[in-house]
Specification:
- The structure is a single chain.
- This protein has two domains: 295 residues, Zn peptidases (Aminopeptidase, 3-Layer(aba) Sandwich), CATH 3.40.630.10; 111 residues, Alpha-Beta Plaits (2-Layer Sandwich).
- 36% of the residues lie in helices and 24% in strands.
- It is built from eleven helices and 16 strands.
- The chain has an eight-stranded mixed beta sheet, sandwiched between helices. Strands 10-12-8-13 form a four-stranded antiparallel beta sheet, with helices on one face.
- A hairpin with a 3-residue loop joins β1 and β2.
- It is elongated, with a radius of gyration of 24 Å.
- 47% of the residues are buried.
């Protein structure tokens, strides 16, 4: 519903053949959005450059928040602050109570030293927008300007959610929800995009159902008895115990989980010892556990804790295990995602819209999708001919900035027509 008509009926029904006035209205609105996105590209490339040059870590997005607030005031959009640095704007079209759709962007950066040699390179040593959240924020600001300027042409209310802390537990989305972001007014559905340099600029991808995994952090301390490396019989070697433990933990996945149920357990950090002739007294491990099934997820937690304690104790040591429960899996509402994909085809053309692959990465957008229908889709941002090929979280990550035109246009289009 929206855009002064039932858009889903237009897309899915043969009655479209008998509604030339509906097609005409749709095309006019689509052209208006695309023309404004094209006209405003330079302006919002500059916005992206400012954000990229001034990144802020999770829950420290104070200046970013102020910048967003300034832009919303400039566009004449009322807003409020939530969860300390989050910003929520409201744009009311005709008949604002008829429908409420939310659009979300994340704002935080990563603790990565940027290696790009560009004029808008990060000015904050060791902090970089390496996951594209500067692009997400820019696209939502661009969509906000377009929606505000066309609000007499569409029905309902659009809620703009600029959220902190996507990169770090407990996830800014969970904090925004606790602070009432899905109330007053309550959105019926929520959409968000994520840049994908592995997909060429101008392309989009969608997927209904489960699309990204849950993510939990694992912290294990293996305690033994330190001693001289030349007299291992007088020590309880936590490094030897740990070597067995790491291999053993992988069997939780390979022998307890249905192989058709995607799941990953990775130990990513081992800290122990500082000399060649000393057996240390303890080893610290960190890692991540990913799943796409909540029942298996928490069963696996129990298995990790039980297996760690049993194996370590059997070899004479002690273990402390902590599992920090993180984001749930991202679930894209199937019907909403199909509608969004159809609308994207109208916007970009059939050849530029594909299906998103399953990914074991995690996203705190998941919290929204477990409360209201959500759609998390991909925005192509790569360009091999320009050497823009590095993936997110890489120190040379960048985008073809024509993606900003596509992103802000698509967000505005979906907001009023889905």
């Amino acid at each position: 519903m929206g855009c002064l008509l039932k858009i889903n009926d237009v897309i899915t029904s043969k009655s479209v053949l008998f509604l030339p006035q509906v097609i005409n209205t749709l095309n006019k609105m689509l052209d208006k959005i695309k023309n404004r996105a094209k006209e405003y590209l330079s302006e919002f490339v500059s916005v992206r450059h400012h954000l990229h040059a001034h990144p802020e870590l999770s829950y420290e997005e104070f200046n970013t928040s102020i910048f967003i607030q300034q832009k919303l005031r400039e566009f004449g959009i009322p807003y409020e602050v939530k969860a300390v640095t989050g910003v929520v704007g409201i744009i009311e079209g005709k008949n604002p109570e008829k429908r409420v759709v939310a659009l979300r962007a994340d704002m935080d950066a990563l603790p990565i030293l940027e290696e790009n040699d560009v004029p808008y390179k990060s000015t904050i040593d060791g902090v970089m927008h390496a996951c594209g959240h500067d692009v997400h924020t820019t696209c939502l600001l661009g969509a906000a300007k377009i929606l505000s300027e066309t609000k007499q042409d569409w029905e309902g209310t659009v809620k703009l959610i600029f959220q902190p802390g996507e990169e770090k537990n407990p996830g800014g989305a969970s904090l925004m929800i606790k602070d009432g972001v899905l109330q007053n007014p309550a959105p019926e559905k929520i959409l968000a995009l994520h840049v994908h340099p592995g997909m060429e600029v101008g392309k989009f991808s969608f997927r209904g159902g489960m699309v990204m995994a849950s993510a939990d952090e694992i912290y294990i301390t293996v305690k033994g008895k330190g001693g001289h490396a030349a007299a291992p019989h007088l020590a309880i070697d936590p490094i030897l115990i740990t070597s067995h433990l790491i291999i053993s933990l992988q069997q939780i996945i390979s022998r307890n989980n249905n192989p058709f149920n995607p799941s990953v357990l990775s130990i990513t950090t081992i800290n122990a010892g500082n000399a060649t002739n000393v057996i240390p007294s303890e080893v610290k491990l960190m890692g991540t556990f990913r799943a796409m099934n909540e029942e298996w997820r928490f069963k696996a937690h129990e298995l990790i804790i039980a297996q760690t304690n049993a194996l370590v104790q059997s070899m004479g040591g002690e273990a402390d295990v902590k599992i920090d429960v993180g984001y749930p899996f991202v679930f894209n509402d199937v019907e909403l995602s199909e509608q969004a994909k159809d609308l994207a085809i109208m916007f970009a053309g059939l050849e530029h819209v594909s299906e998103t692959e399953l990914r074991m990465g995690a996203e705190d957008f998941a919290y929204y999708t477990h409360v209201i229908p959500g759609c998390f889709f991909r925005l192509g941002a790569g360009n091999q001919s320009k050497g823009i090929v590095y993936n997110v979280h890489h120190p040379k990550f960048n985008i073809d900035e024509n993606a900003i035109e596509q992103g802000m246009g698509m967000m505005a289009w979906l907001a009023i027509s889905i």
